[in-house]
């Protein structure tokens, strides 16, 4: 996982000792990661990873991507999300999206 459970819980302001939501938060991290990969048509890798040579678009997840995942986890966890990517998150993803020319 690009964002670990401890970081997500800190962002959600949930104490580490509270573990009742851990499985849910873990699944939300994975869902948010997959969602942004679909949105950008690329694969985000953890820091220190090497790029596979299989023709896909790869990026090392920088601080912006880690924050995007945490924001989406928060939206999902608190039930505030409409299912749409918020405009400020879309702005953060813009550099990673494929853009057609012409």
Automatic annotation (TrEMBL):
Pfam family, one: Phage_connect_1
UniProt cross-references to CDD domains, sorted A to Z: gp6
Coiled coil: none
Gene3D superfamilies: Phage gp6-like head-tail connector protein
InterPro entries for the chain: Phage_gp6-like_head-tail (IPR021146), Phage_HK97_gp6-like (IPR006450)
Superkingdom in the source lineage: Bacteria
Name recorded for this polypeptide: Phage gp6-like head-tail connector protein
Classification of source organism: Bacteria, Pseudomonadati, Pseudomonadota, Gammaproteobacteria, Orbales
């Amino acid at each position: 996982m690009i964002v670990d459970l401890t970081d997500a819980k800190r962002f959600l302001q949930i104490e580490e000792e509270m573990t009742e939501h851990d499985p849910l938060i873990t699944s939300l991290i994975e869902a948010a990661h997959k969602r942004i990969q679909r949105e950008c048509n690329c694969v985000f890798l953890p820091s220190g990873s090497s790029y596979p040579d299989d023709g896909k678009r790869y990026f090392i997840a920088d601080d912006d991507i880690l924050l995007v995942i945490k924001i989406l986890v928060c939206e999902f966890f608190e039930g505030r999300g409409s299912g749409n990517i918020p405009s400020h998150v879309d702005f953060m993803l813009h550099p990673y999206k494929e853009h057609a020319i012409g």
